[in-house]
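Cross-check.
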Amino acid sequence: MVKIISWNVNGFRAILKKGFTDWFKKEQFDFLMLQETKTQEIDLPLSLSEKSSKYQLYYNSAKKKGYAGTAIFSKHKPENVTYGINQKNHDNEGRVVTLEFAKFFLVDVYVPNSGRGLPRLDYRKEWDLAFLKYLKKLEKKKPVIIGGDFNVAHEEIDLARPKQNYNKTAGFTQTEIDGFDNFVKAGFVDTFRYLHPKKVEYSYWSYRFNAKANNVGWRVDYFLVSDKIKNKVKAAEILTDVKGSDHCPVSVELDF
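Predicted model, tokenized:
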């Protein structure tokens, strides 16, 4: 069994001060994928050294300091590592790390946010299409597991206030929903919704308006898998009790 955890940490240095070290030490996983690391270099403190020595760390930083970024702690040595999606206009923000193993590709992704007022919505549309093209190219070789912050609530069940946010707020415009629909239509399965068709749980809460206490949240963090390996998905959870970021971790277990 392979256990993978994905977490938008909203700043790696910041989360080190918010209990991440203790959580990292006690949590069991084969892979930990982080998004929004916001750092050029991931320096692990001595307090993480003992357990972290069991993992290889692969990270992709944005050229812009203090912005975006992804990282993977891997217990298993990959055959190959790729940073980005091999497109110059999309690879400056450190949004993708891909590890290749014998039976699958593992992709860590931090999808661009369209921004307040939607200034990057057009770019986001381009990015979704380019990322899907990249995934389908990988899939020609072997199945793909994708985890990360997709910055979209796919359906009304995936956010607390769909009517108030539809086509007004980044993360729930029709353009972004269509982008996620394209992943599904292309054969990628939302593992949480596959196992929990009607379950209402969220993975992100704004720091404003006491959103977490009132559970006014969004499910924007996902694990997708190639359709041919969906039967290997044995668990998919949202770890709502884990604190430290405006997102909580999500996990998936597969029978590999």
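The two ends are 5 Å apart (CA to CA). The chain has a mean pLDDT of 96. Passed to J.P. for a second look.
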